[in-house]
Amino acid sequence: MLDQLAYVIPVMGILGLATAGLIFSWVLKHDGGTGRVAEIGDQIHRAAMAFMTREMRVMGIFTLVIGVLVGIFLTVNTAVAFFVGAICSTLAGFIGMYTATKANVRTAVAARNDGATSALSVAFFGGSIMGLTIASMGLLGIGALFLFLIGTGERALEAAGTRDHAIEGFAMGASIVALFYRVGGGIFTKAADVGADLVGKVEAGIPEDDPRNPGVIADNVGDNVGDVAGMGSDLFESYCGAQIATIILAATTAAGGTALMLDTGVDIREATLTLMLLPLVLTSVGLLCSLLGIGLVKVSAGLNPARALRAGTMGAALLFMIAAYLVTAALGVAPGVWVAILVGTVGGVIIGSITEYYTGGAPVRMIARSARTGVATVMINGLAVGLQSVVVPIITIAGIILVAYHFAGDYGVGIAAVGLLATIGITMAIDAYGPIADNAGGIAEMTGMGPETRKITDSLDAVGNTTAAIGKGFAICAAGLAALTMIKAFINVIDDKVPDFLSQISLGNEMVLVGAFLGILCAFLNGSITMRAVGGAAFEMIEEIRRQFREIPGLLEGNAQPDAERCVKIAADGAMKRLIWPALLAVGMPLGVGFILGAQALVGMLVGALLGCVALALFMSNSGGAWDNAKKHVEDGHEGGKGSEAHAATVVGDTVGDPLKDTSGPSMNILINVMAIWSVVIAPLLSPLPIWIDDGEQPTPQTEAVEAAMHEHATPHVRLVVDDEAGEA
């Protein structure tokens, strides 16, 4: 049975890609517009693909260098897995971006010609291609590598008890792509958005998405590179990382044996192989549940858009919980594993609901009311909302860890992360729907489709803002659990190499504490770097938009065309120039800390970074989302409406919140996942102690006993030397 399951997994990936292709052909059958409508749609599409192509060229060089180094210093199989992961993630982002920039104009035309139900269907199905592609490429890539590196039959049983599979290279390759797509795309989109808003809406007093604004095309392009390709690569990294880390946990812990099987007398190799395959089987089932959820949205499209999308999400999650129970029972896995899967899935729903409340409920209206007294109170209340919004998600993540660990140990934490991400197909579909709806509104405004069309696209966009905020909260939770699973896998790998390593990494160990402080430093430094990157690129964008308003005769009067391509180029140049520092931080810190301070310090750094990144990401994303929706609440006619002083105050709040929620906050997910998976990959090369203490040899039981005595009794100036042969100090 296990052999058949191993072959089913990549087949499910192919099935998902085929389904995505059929949906794309359905989207293309819709009217893409003519004249100015088609021209604007093509302009956004070409600019988005040009930026992605440029990004891929730089990323390709970076990936090639790292892949060669991995092959030299680790294994050829690890390098192969690394390149496969990079290719799968790149293709997923490329396909998602391509289809989203074809669906946006068709959504606008559907809103004008056929009404809200048709527009919702086109936008959602356009986004579902991204979701299905991510899930399918993950299953195809990891499933094929599982067959290639681990195999089936007796070969798989022999490999089950070891960790030398090299499959972690796949997640490492995906993390490199996510670093470029998410951080680079985030800098691009917010540089364009901030520039277009500040000069257009605040200084020039023209509406959002006004065709006179030179930054509007760049802003619409940015929605795709940041929130489609960027978010997609973010979730793809967590999706694959959680599965691979769980595979490693199954292979390297006692929980990977008979302890988690109904029949404790089963052969330990067969039990381990079952638990290694389980995350892949669950995500395959999750893909089927996502397809059913997508169908449920189609059936419910005539309802309120928010209700239709929620029905699809909740329906897919409920189906997955039932299916997961049947799968674990069929494979003979203990019920505690299903409980861990259940708590991960439920935790994701809770965090999504809390995020929806803080970015679309009473806190947003409170921020909007405070705009009556100016910018300062908008900023103060937005910060307060963001800080408070961290509380329940952190408690939820802690609860997931406690329950999952209680019922299934370390493996339970990993499988909970898999449960959270298993229905990524519909989760990402709903998230990608947002930028498509936003682009449709921009196209409707720029081409003068009329107030009725704009009313429909605005209603879709309002729902899209909420789904995007929920998606960000979900992504943060997923990244945190995936990173925690990878950290546990890293500890197990080192523990295999160094006996009793686990007992050495307590808070009483100064190297662990030093590493923890360095990890928190990474989170705050990454936030600073990415915020400054947006600020610098936005400054250039603002100056260019001002220049065009000043120097192009008749532009503000609507008698001339802006130079939109120049603004796109500035955003692209700004993103590529400023991407290098976040990349160096994410890649360089594990290498520096691991090889200089040792594996103990690296564990501390990963834990510190995990806590710092999750807390900061939640704060940044939710405060930014609250400011954004407070502005939209005022624009809907509340607190004075558009053009009022309250509106101007909320625009400033939204402008500050934009890089928080779309660049710095999401970059935290990438940072912790990149650092965690890099640590797993380089683990075989590391020593537990700093290079000036450890002589590179594995400690014997005698040396461990002496070192423990030194920590407890000896002064720091005494060095005991052990004669290992005699067993005497």
Features:
mainly alpha, 729 residues, disordered C terminus, single chain, 21 helices
Walkthrough of the structure:
With about 725 residues, the protein is mainly α. The chain is about 80% helix and about 0% strand. Helix 12 runs parallel beside helix 20. The longest helix has about 45 residues.
Question: Which bin fits the share of residues in helices?
Answer: over 70%
User: What structural class results from the helix and strand content?
Assistant: mainly alpha
Q: Which descriptor suits the 3D outline?
A: globular
Counted by DSSP, the helix tally is 21
Per DSSP E runs of 2 or more residues, the count of β-strands stands at: 0
Radius of gyration: 26 Å
- SSE run: HHHHHHHHHHHHHHHHHHHHH
Low-confidence spans: 695-729
Distance between the termini: 54 Å
Summarize model confidence as the mean pLDDT: 86
Percent of residues in β-strands: under 5%
How are the secondary structure elements laid out?
Elements: H1 2-28, H2 35-73, H3 76-113, H4 116-150, H5 153-160, H6 168-203, H7 216-252, H8 268-299, H9 305-330, H10 335-360, H11 362-370, H12 375-388, H13 391-421, H14 424-446, H15 451-497, H16 510-551, H17 564-578, H18 580-597, H19 599-635, H20 645-682, H21 701-712
Helix pairs in contact: 1-4, 1-8, 2-3, 2-6, 2-7, 3-4, 3-6, 3-7, 3-14, 3-15, 4-7, 4-8, 4-14, 5-8, 6-7, 6-16, 6-17, 6-20, 7-8, 7-13, 7-14, 7-15, 7-17, 7-20, 8-9, 8-13, 8-14, 9-10, 10-11, 10-13, 10-15, 10-19, 11-12, 11-19, 12-19, 12-20, 13-15, 14-15, 15-19, 15-20, ...
